[in-house]
Structures are given as structure tokens and as C-alpha cells.
């Protein structure tokens, strides 16, 4: 989004509403302009405001007073002090909602923010060897945990694939989210996907590299807004293009956020029990003999019986065990991290009081 806006921008198209306005009125910076972060660079933020596009940096109290997780991300609503034409200093943020995140690579309990104020998340996979039901389950669990609506977008439907086989593999999660088969070569399929996005809705695209996320965004907007690459001659797959999270506006409709491809998506779920519900095992779990049944080897386990009887696919059950273990590990580690942070905060406060009253 490199073009500068010269006309006044209606931020309602970007998701601004009465609730956000009320939150701003409670801020100490309520007299300053606000805007939405469209792109995050290494040290600079592009912010769309009612008066145009501003290149903003962070105020010192934000840089040194907040952990990385709490710094602005694409989709955040911020308050800034403008200066020198189209430049500004971000001095505050409105409280986040519907924040899509994942476990930060190489950590146990740290989160990495992907986008905020998200209404829907399009899980994009391509109908080649990228199609992976287990990965779709993982993403769906994280998305639903954030009160965001998941949508599975199976792209490159122009390829040769067995649609009936694919739908059968998705049977246990298709009840949790709609599934679209798309291709930029088939305008009718793109139209159906476009019609699923309401005016003012924010949709984030997540998935592996080369599945065609940027091409889908361009097709939905009916113009080339994001860079795309062709097919790699060596692998026959789409090549990774997006290197940052970028927000674009669909004319007369919603807001789309493209994201770089990720190889791994670690769960950052605070409630391990949600894995039961999302993978449609709750009804069976309620019939177990023991309320705290772990569904591993306990007698009278209705989940195990459903697996043995072929009602629950063994692959789904094994995926459930893996995802639940991961969610439990994150939850317990996050709890321990919060306990340590709380203890450290108490020590800091005691030191401050001691200095003030020696």
C-alpha cells in the first residue's frame, strides 16, 4: 500500500465503529487522530487515518515499556501525533479484540501476533500435495479459540484432484467451517468467495508459502495490489512472495490481510478442553465413565470405543491427542510464565517503594 491518500478516508470501511469510538474517548490521547495499521515494517508502521496514509514510528514509552507481543500489529487501531506532513508518532493503542496469534517459534509459551480485529480467517491450502487435513485442524482450533470465524479455502481447483475424496477427509471439520474450492482461473468460484465477505469485515489469509494467498487477494479485489510469483520450474509449485502482513481494502466490501507463508503453526490455546469440542469429540466424552477421562486407556471411555467401532477415525483421534498435549503444554507454561512475571512485578514495586522511603 504505497500510494498516498489525498481525499478524506471513511474509516467505517476499515472497520471503525461506535464501540471503538467509545474506547478512544476513554483514552488520555482522545484529542489526537486515530488510524488502523495496514503494514508493519521493521521500525515503521503504515497507518490509514481519516486524513490519509501516515508513516509512523513508536513513542519511546511504547518501545521500552511493552513486550513485543503488545506492540502494534497489522489490524490494530492506534492513536498518533502527526507531524511533518504524512509522518506521525504512535502514542497509544486501543484494546485488542479477536487477535489471531500463534506460538512463537522456538518458545514454549510466547505468542506471536499475526493480526488483530479479525472477523474471519481464510485457511488457504492448494489442491496438490499442500492439502493437509491435520494442518487445517490445527489452524481451525487456534482461530476458533480467538472467537474468529474460520473458512477453509482450497485453492488451485483447476488442478486434477478427487473432490469426493477431499470432502470425505474433511467430514469431521466441515461442520465447524464452510469450505470453498477456488481458482483464479475460474471467476465464478472467486465470486462465491467474494460474496462471503461482508462490508467492513476483516479477513486474514493464513497458510503455507506458494498456495496462492496473494493471487486470491488480487482476484477478490479485481486488481493487482499485491506482488505474486509464477510457478517454480524446479518444483512445479507456487513460489513464496509475501514477506510481510499487508492490509488492502476491497472496494464496497471488506478488508483483506495477506500474510507470509508459515511452515509451522504452534498452538497458543489457553483452554485445552476446547480441542475436544472443536474436533467434535465432546458428545462422546460426555458419555465416558469418568468425568476427568483422558481418553487414552481409561475403562469405560466412550471416545476410545467410538474409535474402536470406526465411528471416529483413528487419524482424527491421534491428531486430537497430539493437539491436546500441545495445548496443555502451552497452557501450563503460560500459567507459570504469568506467575513468574507477577512475582517479578512485586519485587520491582517493593524496590521502588524502598527507594521512595529509604
Automatic annotation (TrEMBL):
<dbReference type="GO" id="GO:0005525">
    <property type="term" value="F:GTP binding"/>
</dbReference>
<feature type="binding site">
    <location>
        <position position="293"/>
    </location>
    <ligand>
        <name>Zn(2+)</name>
    </ligand>
</feature>
<feature type="domain" description="EngC GTPase">
    <location>
        <begin position="116"/>
        <end position="263"/>
    </location>
</feature>
<feature type="binding site">
    <location>
        <position position="288"/>
    </location>
    <ligand>
        <name>Zn(2+)</name>
    </ligand>
</feature>
<dbReference type="InterPro" id="IPR010914">
    <property type="entry name" value="RsgA_GTPase_dom"/>
</dbReference>
<feature type="binding site">
    <location>
        <position position="301"/>
    </location>
    <ligand>
        <name>Zn(2+)</name>
    </ligand>
</feature>
<keyword id="KW-0479">Metal-binding</keyword>
<comment type="function">
    <text>One of several proteins that assist in the late maturation steps of the functional core of the 30S ribosomal subunit. Helps release RbfA from mature subunits. May play a role in the assembly of ribosomal proteins into the subunit. Circularly permuted GTPase that catalyzes slow GTP hydrolysis, GTPase activity is stimulated by the 30S ribosomal subunit.</text>
</comment>
<dbReference type="GO" id="GO:0019843">
    <property type="term" value="F:rRNA binding"/>
</dbReference>
<dbReference type="InterPro" id="IPR004881">
    <property type="entry name" value="Ribosome_biogen_GTPase_RsgA"/>
</dbReference>
<dbReference type="GO" id="GO:0046872">
    <property type="term" value="F:metal ion binding"/>
</dbReference>
<feature type="binding site">
    <location>
        <begin position="207"/>
        <end position="215"/>
    </location>
    <ligand>
        <name>GTP</name>
    </ligand>
</feature>
<feature type="binding site">
    <location>
        <position position="295"/>
    </location>
    <ligand>
        <name>Zn(2+)</name>
    </ligand>
</feature>
<keyword id="KW-0699">rRNA-binding</keyword>
<dbReference type="Pfam" id="PF03193">
    <property type="entry name" value="RsgA_GTPase"/>
</dbReference>
<keyword id="KW-0963">Cytoplasm</keyword>
<dbReference type="GO" id="GO:0005737">
    <property type="term" value="C:cytoplasm"/>
</dbReference>
<keyword id="KW-0690">Ribosome biogenesis</keyword>
<dbReference type="GO" id="GO:0003924">
    <property type="term" value="F:GTPase activity"/>
</dbReference>
<dbReference type="InterPro" id="IPR030378">
    <property type="entry name" value="G_CP_dom"/>
</dbReference>
<keyword id="KW-0378">Hydrolase</keyword>
<feature type="binding site">
    <location>
        <begin position="155"/>
        <end position="158"/>
    </location>
    <ligand>
        <name>GTP</name>
    </ligand>
</feature>
<keyword id="KW-0547">Nucleotide-binding</keyword>
<keyword id="KW-0862">Zinc</keyword>
<keyword id="KW-0342">GTP-binding</keyword>
<comment type="similarity">
    <text>Belongs to the TRAFAC class YlqF/YawG GTPase family. RsgA subfamily.</text>
</comment>
<comment type="subunit">
    <text>Monomer. Associates with 30S ribosomal subunit, binds 16S rRNA.</text>
</comment>
<dbReference type="InterPro" id="IPR012340">
    <property type="entry name" value="NA-bd_OB-fold"/>
</dbReference>
<dbReference type="GO" id="GO:0042274">
    <property type="term" value="P:ribosomal small subunit biogenesis"/>
</dbReference>
<dbReference type="InterPro" id="IPR027417">
    <property type="entry name" value="P-loop_NTPase"/>
</dbReference>
<feature type="domain" description="CP-type G">
    <location>
        <begin position="110"/>
        <end position="265"/>
    </location>
</feature>
<keyword id="KW-0694">RNA-binding</keyword>
<protein>
    <recommendedName>
        <fullName>Small ribosomal subunit biogenesis GTPase RsgA</fullName>
        <ecNumber>3.6.1.-</ecNumber>
    </recommendedName>
</protein>
